[in-house]
Amino acid sequence: MSSRPLASAGRLVPLLRAGLIAGIVVAAALYPLVAVTGIGAKATAHAIEQKTSILKTALPAETSYVYAPDGKTVLTMFYEEYRQYTKIENMSPNIQQAIVAAEDNRFYQHHGVDPKGVARAFVSNARSGGVSQGASTITMQYVRMALRDSATTPKEVQEATQQTSLRKVKEMRMALDIEKHLSKEQILERYLNSAYFGHRAYGIYAASQIFFSKTPATLTPVEAATLAGLVKSPSEYDPITSDQKDATGRRNYVLDNMARLGYLSPDAAAAAKGQPIKLKLTTPPNDCAAIDGGHRSWGFYCDYLKNWWSSQPAFGENRLERMDKLRRGGYRIVLAVDPKTQAAAEKNVGAKDNTGSPFANGIVVAEPGTGRIKAMAVNRNYSLDLAENPNSSNPEAGPKVKANYPNTVAPLLGGGTLPGYQAGSTFKMFPMLAALNAGMPLSTAYDSPHTYKSAVYDGWAPSNASGAMTGRQTMWSGFGKSVNTYFVQLEEKIGADAGVRLAEQLGLRWRTDVDKEQASPGKAKKWGAFTLGVSDATPLEMANAYAAIAADGRYCEAIPVNAIMNRDGTPATYTTAGGVQREVAKPRCRQVVNADAARAATDAARCPTGDTPAKGSCGGWSTADSVRGTVGRPVAGKTGTTDSTRSAWFVGYTPELAAASFIADPDNPFNAVGDGQSQIPVNAVAQTLRDSLKGQPTRQFTPPSDQMVG
Prior knowledge:
This protein is α+β, with helices and mostly antiparallel strands and 710 residues long. The protein is built from 25 helices and 19 strands. Residues 691-710 are annotated as: Disordered.
């Protein structure tokens, strides 16, 4: 023991004064806060009581997990603070003991504030002339962390963490109150789930994973002491980036304390101190770009999930609140993607090896009757790294703007803010379905010339793609051959606005200024070109719209999830406008057209695919007659191309699945794909439906009634 005197005579008075101050602070902590100078307003006391009430129930931010449909395979996570709440019974006693040894030796003896620790700290700080020792108990530290984590404004964060005597006194008052309501085990559990260990590891579960790739239940004394030693200063004692000298010294300090407190025998502590720190590092994935190589192509689906989530009022008032919930709410999200269908989509995306092409070819598969999206694939890599991408093909983009290939995170398949691509004659479905729903039969016939001048649409005069389309057409033959003039005549009869409004009811949205104007109530009646697909649409929208027809006219909102569970294991819910509570992940469906009209539309839509309708004649030829032979079961659908074949589409469906595929240049819509590539979307849909349904029983379409046939 040193013979150095405790203090010289000249320092005795300051030390005595320090002891007196310590006593005053401790006394202040032990009595109502009104006894503390300058703080004793009732409003302040009430505010602290409110915060204390919050602390009793507050849980820290927690990581949200995204699972494959098996509910077990983790694809990625969303977090600002990587954390998974862990019950204390699932933590090794080693980490419980190590954190007490590191941070608060008298944790089980005091009642939230340790008077001896406070006095010792004031004496030590007075002797050093600075802050050489703190007095925060584990309970006080938990108070500080809980106030920080529950803060909703920058000011509240500052108040929770600022280094002032006032904050310290408030902390003490709250710690004393907390200990009246929570057991030591509950406080320790919350503390270990809130503490920061460095490297974005918040809470003991994250720390165990990141530093040792294991769960808290299996931490050894050496590992527990290493982690417990980090809490005081995660950067100073970091065993990853430093030479481990400081980390080892801090760990050994914790082990010595564990031995002193009786948690370890002296021999066990000595043996543990002789071991090196052996790390087994894990980098937890975060966000869509972090999906591992085995599921890399699922990044676009994950991105769709994010965009869908940000539009759901169940998770907040605005996009910012909803995304905050995703990153902090601790949800368990099970995707609706079907691995078999996804694999088929990825395999059959045309130009799949041509990621060096500006032309994007993508496909989306939806499930009729639920709206669940079963697959999303595109000939691109989901990646934030655009360094090796060439410059954009758009001459107006500028010399330094990168193209979207081979890497991109742009929502090329829909669900985001991109307008999509002109969908051509796939839009003929909407006026035809509107006509059928209004009672017009499939046999409705017109003499359709090669060019038709419309008096209704102010002399607009569209032409057909081929002179072979001239003649008398019905809905079967007009749809099968894609006769433009027939559909302008049909559209005149029912009104262009009827098709526009029906498309909206089936989920289409107008995103460009031109489309918004043309679809407006004052313009829609004159939008004759609507039936020719001059509007932009996304494959997500088109797949789901056609899925509603396959489901006998029952439209279901597109949805990317099978289940969403709150952190407590209960399903995430929302309240409808009618006051009914429903699960967020449940399908949201409504009947848009009558079932007989939808069945009639399907009967006509069998003509383009080379299939045979139940009731009518396709007129001898069709635009995609190879589809029926490829799919090998009843199938309906529609081709679509735009002027100069700038984009090409095919939307096809069976009773089980609906798929939409496109090919276009997302950077430059004037860069025509050409007729030579127009078959790519047809093949992508046909082959994907074939492979996805392989081995399943063949289902038949329900034929329309004789009344709908006419």
